[in-house]
Amino acid sequence: MSLECAKKIIDWIFTHIPNNTEDIEINFIGGEPLLEFELLKNIVEYTHLKNPTDNYNFFTTTNGVLLNDKMKMWLDDHKDEFVLGLSLDGTKETHNYNRSNSFDKIDFKYFLETWPNQGVKMTLSDYSLPHLAENIKFIHSLGFKEIFGVNLFEGTFDWSSEDYVKILVAQLKELVEFYVENDTLIVNHMLNKQLYLCEATNKDKESWCGLGVTTILFDVDGTKLPCVFCTGMTFKENELNKIKTIDFNDGTNFIDEDCFNNCYIYPICPTCAGANYLNYKTFKYRDKRRCRIQKLITLFIADLQAKRIVKNPKIYDNDKLYYTINAINKVRKLYFHEFKEYFEFQSE
Q1: E strand or H helix that includes residue 201
Q2: What is the mean pLDDT of the chain?
Q3: Residue in 185, 194, 205 with CA at minimum distance from that of residue 324
Q4: Over 60: is that where the pLDDT of 181 sits?
Q5: Within a 10 A sphere around the Cβ of 28, how many other Cβ atoms?
Q6: Which one in 10, 24, 183, 314 has a CA-CA gap of 20 to 30 Å to 91?
Q7: Long-range pairs for 91-96 at CB < 8 Å and ≥24 separation?
């Protein structure tokens, strides 16, 4: 992207964002963003010049390989407004397999000391899935408090395969025990769901990822797109043009009525609107091929929260505790029979 193009995008953002917007996050994505470090610096400086407020910040994720002393000096001066996240897939063996032997080139200490509350992004692969628990525990052992990106939309797994189910069961069992024992850690993204929301009597029907409204992407030529998924890398030009005609402010365009009306775990079920469109040419229908695996994961979420409550009954306030316990019982009654062979606890 040219600097002139970037300036026009920054101007558009601060012209069109509603005045009551509390926080704006400007993300840079690649490829590897640090290849254009000078451009990043110039965009930050231009943004400050045109918008001397404090309601925005900058973020990008890097593999850490290109980070050098000169970059660190600038980042140290801007660490409160510019956050650098790290892509890390686990142990040295796993990371090197996924990312071309780059583990030893990463300055982990710098990331931990500069942004101590920033987690890492982990990407799953056929190789790393059987080592998921080992990799997550290793990342925590380095000092990182949180792990993002571990979800059903990472990788190209056929989740209808019983082989993948068996692998995942073993890994989630190990992770539940780990997070029960280490209850000060933030649970990884796959298991970190607010189960009590399933008991809500006023479920938010029109909640979605914000595609086209709060997740806008600008391509390198300045073309405005709905999100990082809805780009020319995923869709042909005619499909993108059709997507652009959709009213993104109308939440009903993103609601799967069948899921909303009939699925108990609808409030916590992860979905990607762009992936749904890729499969069904509409944002309204969710990909049902992941339903079984999501039920399985939710059983482990229920198991983890139940064990944490037993260990510390005051982990939630009274209302949240009540709804969480009800949700745990309901999830077990609904889905336990499908996976009974995998679980040690009883449905009662």
Answers
A1: none
A2: 91
A3: 194
A4: yes
A5: 20
A6: 183
A7: 91/131, 91/134, 91/135, 91/138, 94/127, 94/128, 94/131, 94/134, 94/135
